[in-house]
Each structure stands twice: as structure tokens, then as C-alpha cells.
Amino acid sequence: MMRIKILGTGKYLPGCIVTAEDLDCKLNLPKGWVAKKSGILQRHHAKSETASQMGACAAHEALTAANLVGEDIDCIIGASGTMEQAIPCNAVLIKEAMGLQATSIPVFDINATCLSFLIAFDTAACLISAGRYRRILIVSSDIASHALDWDHKESCILFGDGAAAVVVGAGEGKSGILTSRFETYSRGAHLAEVKGGGTAIHPREYSEETKKDFLFRMDGERLFRMSLEYAPTFMQFLMKDANTSFDEIDLVIPHQASLNGLRLLQRHLSIPNHKFLVRIQEYGNTMAASIPMMLDDAIRSHKINRGERIMLIGTAAGFSIGGMIIDF
Questions:
Q1: Any catalytic annotation for residue 274?
Q2: What's the CA gap between 89 and 109, in Å, rounded?
Q3: Exactly one of 44, 60, 89, 285 is catalytic; which is it?
Q4: For residue range 134-167, what is the model confidence (pLDDT) as tens digits?
Q5: Per-residue model confidence (pLDDT) at position 154
């Protein structure tokens, strides 16, 4: 077991709530189509907020929950699937928005799209276990709404914006990571992507002809099939590595990718409702912020308590799948 403890969590949701009925109207669809197709009743879209501002709000909430202040942190990891700007990394901008410009706290980003938080959590645990840092702040802040293709109805209705933060430190007692596992199958590399904005299709090349390359594209059906192909075996290995069973798991917190996918995973693994946290109906898919947002909800609502065992599981563009089992 890797000894690490969650010291505090926080989240932030933009003020603009977009309902399923709002999207029915925006997309010229029959009333009730979005709710029936996606199962998502509302989501939050950032209008005036920046990702760094959202992340800073979540970070301050996490620090308060941990009874700490920003100066008590000795590393900040930005763990988002979207970038506020190309350079510098999100973590620099979040640190600035937190008012920590005068400190020397080091920061860096980890971007593995929707698995960014889990990989950052795993990395933070390794760094703390090695004695490199004492307390690390992980911040996931994603604004997916700015890059949605409103002509692609099946994908644009799924996403929401939000931020979440987690403070981690050296584990005490039973707290720690029993196991973590990540796999990537790059035959799915182009099933979810924004092609423009980098060096392949530079922003200078933006035009009426290329503008779709700067929007999010997703082949949801093929991604869904890949999830079904790899998830069952992945879960078996994860449980085996942790030397545990589903009977010993108190709560499963999945990445909130799609309601249909979540329900299928739940049925396939025979997870009872009280052990499977689903709130995509309220938030939509908030990308990397999804899992830490659910973690914050679970802690604050006492769905999980100290000493209980949690599974965090998700998929990401790439195609990647990842998960960990922790004793909270």
C-alpha cells in the first residue's frame, strides 16, 4: 500500500445553468429530446469565469476543508483535460488566481484528458511517499463548453464545466492507495479529439474551411465499444492487484462520461445503487474534474467516511482506461 491521505476537497460550478430544455431550444429539437437521449437534466457552462478562476475557487474550498492555507502547500499539480492557454501551464495560472504569486511553490500540469486527476493523484502519492513533498494540491478545472460542436448533437449535449481540488498528504493509519492501474490502447487515438490548435493545425491556419478542426469531435459508439471490450478485464486485474473484492468496496466513483455507459458498467459488475455514485444528471460530463467533483460530493454528504474503501475508475481520449482503489 502507498500511504497517502486525502486531507480536504472542494469544487466550483459556474453560475450559468443550462437545462435540457434550453438545449432542446438551442438545437431546434423536439421538447424532451436532450433529456431522453442523454439522461442529463442540467449542466453548468462558464460564461464570465476562466478555468484558473474556477480552479482557484475549488482550491480555496479544499484548503479550508483541510484546515490549511495556500502557503502550507509545497506543490500544485494542474490536472485538467482542457488548457486555458497554450503557455504557461494551467497550474501557473491557478496559482496566480489563488494569490500565491509571492511564494516559490513549484507547479506543473498533467494532462491525460479525462484521466488527468487519477494520474495526478497517483503521481502525487509517489512524490509524497518518496519524501519529495509533504502536501500537494491537485486541481482539475475544465471548460468543455467552449469547444463543443453544436452541429454534433450526440456529443454536445453531454458536457458541462466545473472544477474540483483535492489536498493530499502523507497517510496515517489505514489511509492509502491499495493499487492503481492505467492502460492505453492507441488504436482509439482519434476517436475523441480536437485536431486544431497545436502544431499539426496551427491557430494561424484557422479559417471558415478549417474551423471544425478546432472543435471537439467524438465517435461515441466506437468509444463505447472499446470500453466494453477492455473494462471487464481491467476491473478483474485491478481487484486482483488490490487483493480485494466488490463486497469490500464501500463506494465506486466512476468518471461521469455518459449515463448509458455508467448504467451498463453498473449492471455488468452487479454494483448496487448505494455503492455506485452517479450525478451526471446534474453536472454532465465535466472531463477531468468529474471524479474529484464526485469525490467531494461523497465526502461532504458522508457517503464515504474514514476507514472505508473506494474505487475510482474512468476512461479517457486515447483510448485510455484507469482506476485505483483507496482506503479513505
A1: no
A2: 6
A3: 285
A4: 999 999 999 999 999 999 998 999 999 999 999 9
A5: 87
Q: How many degrees, rounded to 5, is the angle at CA 37 between CA 155 and CA 210? A: 20
Backbone dihedral region for residue 149 (phi beyond 0: left; psi -120 to 50: alpha; all else: beta)? beta
Tens digit of pLDDT for each residue in 261-315? 899 888 888 889 999 999 999 999 999 999 999 999 999 999 999 999 999 999 9
Task: Name which CATH class applies to 177-327.
Answer: alpha beta
Among the listed residues 75, 89, 114, 156, the single catalytic one is: 114
Choose the catalytic residue: 44, 45, 60, 255. Answer: 255
CA distances from 188 to 217, 218, 222, 232, 318 (A): 13, 11, 8, 18, 5
Q: What is the pLDDT of residue 228?
A: 86
114 is catalytic: yes
> CATH assignment of 4-170?
3.40.47.10
Average pLDDT along the chain: 95
Question: Nearest-CA neighbor of 10 among 251, 295, 324, 323?
Answer: 295
Measured CA to CA in angstroms, residue 279 lies from 108, 173, 199, 305 at distances of 29, 31, 37, 19
CA distance 249 to 232: 17
Mean pLDDT of 88-93: 98
Question: Catalytic residue at 89?
Answer: no
Domain ranges of the chain: 4-170, 177-327
